[in-house]
Amino acid sequence: MRLKIFFITLSLMFLLVLLRLAYMQLIMGGYYRQLSAKNCIRLIARQARRGTVYDRNGIILAENLPSYDVVIIPQDFQEPEAGFVFLSRALQKDRQELVKHFRLNRNAPFAPVVVAKNISREQAIKIEENKNQYPGISVQVNAKRAYPLASVSSHILGYVGEIDRFRITRLKDYGYKLKDMVGYGGIEEYYDNFLRGEDGGVQIVVDNRGRQVRMLGMRSPTAGKDIRLTIDARIQKICAEALSGFKGAAIFMDPKNGEILGMVSSPAFDPNVFVERYAPDLLSGYFQDQQAPLLNRAVSGLYAPGSVFKVVTALAALEQGKVSAVTSFFCNGSYQLGNRQFACTQKHGLQDLRLAFAHSCNVYFYHLGRLAGPEALSRLAYELGFGQTAGLDLPAQAQGIIPSPIQKRMARKENWYPGDTLNFSIGQGELLVTPLQLTIMMATVVNGTFAARPHLVKEVAGRQPAVIGRQKRLKIKPQNLEIVRRDLRAVVSEPTGTAHILNIENLKVAGKTGTAQVGQGRPHAWFVGFFPYQEPKMVFAVFLENGGSGYNACVVAREILRRMVEEKIL
Amino acid sequence: MTFVINIYQDMRNENKIIYASTITIMLIGLAALYSATYERGQRPMSPLFLKQVVWFCLAVVMLFAAANFNYRRIYDYAYLIYGFGVLLLLVVLVLGRRILGAQRWLELGGLNLQPSEPMKLGIILVLCRWFSVKGRFSRNYAGYRLNQVIRQFLPPFALTAIPAGLIFMQPDLGTAVLYILIFFVVLFISGAPKGLVFTPVIAGLLASPVFWHFLKAYQKDRLRVFLNPNIDPLGAGYTIIQSKIAIGSGGLLGRGWLSGTQGQLSFLPESHTDFIFAVIGEEGGLIAAIVLLALFYILVYSGINIARTTKDRFGSLLACAIVALLAFQVVINLAMTCGICPVVGLVLPFVSYGGSALLIFAVLVGMLININKRRMVF
Fold it and tell me: Rounded to whole angstroms, how far apart are CA atoms A192 and A184?
């Protein structure tokens, strides 16, 4: 009897174990199979080649250079002591530093750890020669982003770096991962999606200590798309050299299709410093510099346009039908408004539109501005592209401000006075624009039929991006634009014109100078023009922040144009 | 005379099944061990495996040897064997080699001997001898309970508790508990009054919280992770989690011999000793597990049958004790590999790596056959 109880107990125990096994292997089998795969299957990413950036003539602006990096594969690295001694001797680096770097960056036995980046060829050869003596150490050729033009192309291209926290939260859903290289600023950021390509990967089987046992499969990375810019590297270089030593910007643009041929902001930075991180002092210097080298003044800086805005005032008055091309006003050196005097630069005497442009007579444009009225001025300013982002393919473009009675009421809760209209009509007061916006204005005036749409990219992987073709028709009468275009030539051609210095043979430059008063420091110097004036091929703007009189901008512009002629670009 | 020969042949047929099952289990064990110690690109046979092959041959010899002498003669040597076992246990406590934090091995000329294994034999023999004495429980102690306990319970309990205590100090909780279990089984089967069997069991269960304080830190961890393996997935809970993954991922048919990732890629610790069943479960699937369980069950079933039909009281008890030892160890080992019982260091008989255990179990099963051959003699 007791034997029977004992036997039944044992049988029940066997049954219990059997049921448990059946539960684990049949019902939960899939779940455990999954866990088992997770245990031993790992993915190593293979980085995709980032697209190359060319200028319009095929000169390389951003490329990938081989970088010789010393890597250690932990699972093969058997003699760390001797290995690190050898490495520190070969690389002339502190051993402790190398060990520390190795420890910090090690994450799996099969994953190579980069301990030194971008070593010289000689060092690479030395290490490769001793490879067999120190298993686990090798030299890997990785891609390194390089910008051959360095600071000349800095603001247009931006730079690449490891993704930051802000961007990873925003871009996670688009397949960006930690440690990805992404663009910061410029084309690198704006077209990152095209440039970056798609990373591939290798699936491997690892054992309990994470050592690779065998490979399961791989997906090769897809290279990023190459981009051709509208930029001409030669123009870019000339502008950068002419502007060196100044704070300011220079822009060259084709008014017919909106292609940006050159765009320089000064002072600039060297994007290679951001990529290689070899000079931390230089890097932090960029961020602390009072001159703000990281700011792209051409599209992100906001300044008063000064007299350059008189082009808008003239157009507004002509459009309103208040004046014609021959309407004249007398300048006696100031404009009386109530009991206030609004001064002119000098006594110009009787001025028509042509002479008023040439001498930049404030009194004449006070009259036009009052005749047109502030609302008409703001409306036309908006039509010509002020107070809105220019639609250029660069990140961080500034919008600017167009003043108007309503705007003043809303922003400052103040009434609009006639004095505000006077300031507005000569581009002072609340008005803030970017150098690019002035260039667009001039391009629009010059091509006469549609608003210029600026862009930097000509082709992505050999194909033209669709957005570039879109154009907005203008509502301004062509004959009025014709009048302004013709009269702007006088600024250069008249011996008394403010930009007579730019009267270079055969170029037939036209344009408008500007000397914008600022609260503190010297005024901003502007010249925004085009050439040849009958059938303009290029529109350009030269801007010097706190550069003094507009004449100074003309000097820089002359230097640029002279060099362009010399190098047979024109 | 013909009558005797007929019976003899009958017995031989039944014994054949026992022989066959035992040897099959051992062969399955060798296959699993080969897989557990196999390393891609290394020598096809690991030294560990070759060693176990030698042990296997010895075990087969011992199996036949233990079946072919008169087991009654061992009755006389019971106390001697027992005493020798206790002596070994004392020696191992003083001189033993530390393996995995426990002093369980004695090194004898290059061979590691685990004295807790021969002690199993000693304890079984002594207990069965003590309980097989006629009239052990015939006297009625009504009104003298204490006297009864002193006469009928304490002596065999002390015989069990001394080696169990020594083993517990090694420390090896699993084997110590196993000894105590065997004691109660023999006590129960031998016809002791119910009160004498169940009162200590219940008292022991009630007092179990007290024993908690005598456990080593790692033993407490094992019990804690048994309740929830995820409290320490990389430490104490690691083995059990990996073992469950291995068994579960085997599914119905298994992943194929030498193809289980858990075992082959060393995610499974102790895969050649305590957790060898996980390798079988992973690579052979439920099918292999059922085959193995069935073979063990055949041994249990035949053992119980032998105990039932053997006239000799000593032989019958001995058969019972052998079955209990084998069944408990199998069930506890399987239960701990699939996570329904805490991890205590009990190996899977005939399958796990280890010479001492293999030889002793071969001897025990041999004795089972031995008893069967002579069940009608008395």
Answer: 9
What is the rounded CA–CA span in Å between residue B186 and residue B317?
7
Nearest to A32 among B244, B265, B335 (CB): B244
**A25: pLDDT confidence band, cut at 50, 70 and 90?**
very high
Pairing of strands A227-229, A53-54: parallel
pLDDT over 60 (residue A133): yes
DSSP character string of A458-472: EEETTB--GGGG--E
Q: Is the per-residue pLDDT at A554 higher than 90? A: yes
Angle between helices A362-372 and A374-383 (to 10 degrees): 100
Mean pLDDT estimate for chain A = 88
Sorted by sequence, the CB contacts under 8 Å of residue A85 that are 6+ apart come out as A95
Looking at residue A307, the DSSP 8-state letter turns out to be G
Paired with A415 in beta bridges are none
What's the DSSP call for residue A249?
E
Q: Are A512 and A487 in contact (CB under 8 A)?
A: no
For the entire predicted model, the pTM comes to 0.65
Average pLDDT over residues B37-54: 84
Does residue A266 surpass a pLDDT of 90? no
Say if the Cβ atoms of B247 and A25 lie within 8 Å.
yes
CB contact under 8 A, A32 and B267: no
Q: Hey, what amino acid is at B94?
A: V
Angle at which helices B116-132 and B72-95 cross, to 10°: 140
CA closest to A17 among chain B residues: B335
Rounded to whole angstroms, the Cα distance separating A283 from A293 reads 11
Give just the sign of the alpha carbon dihedral B82, B86, B91, B93: positive
Give the residue among B321, B345, B365, B322 at the shortest CA–CA distance from B114.
Answer: B345
Inter-chain touch A213–B265, beta carbons under 8 Å: yes
Measured in angstroms, the CA of B113 and the nearest CA of chain A are apart by 30
**Rounded distance, CA A214 to CA A199, Å?**
21
Q: Position A292: which residue type? A: A
Q: Would you say the C-alpha torsion B122, B128, B129, B130 has a positive or negative sign? A: positive
Nearest to A379 by CA among A308, A305, A474: A474
pLDDT band at A11 (very low <50, low <70, confident <90, very high): very high
Instruction: Report the complex ipTM.
Output: 0.92
C-alpha distances out from residue B10 to A230, B72, B161, B300, B373, Å: 101, 21, 40, 19, 10
Burial tier of B117 (Cβ tally within 10 Å: 0-12, 13-18, 19+): buried
Q: Kindly list the distances between the CA atom of residue B11 and the CA atoms of A529, B5, B63, B371, in Å, as whole numbers in the listed order.
A: 118, 10, 16, 10
Q: Are A216 and A41 in contact (CB under 8 A)?
A: yes
Contacts of B271 in chain A (CB under 8 A): none
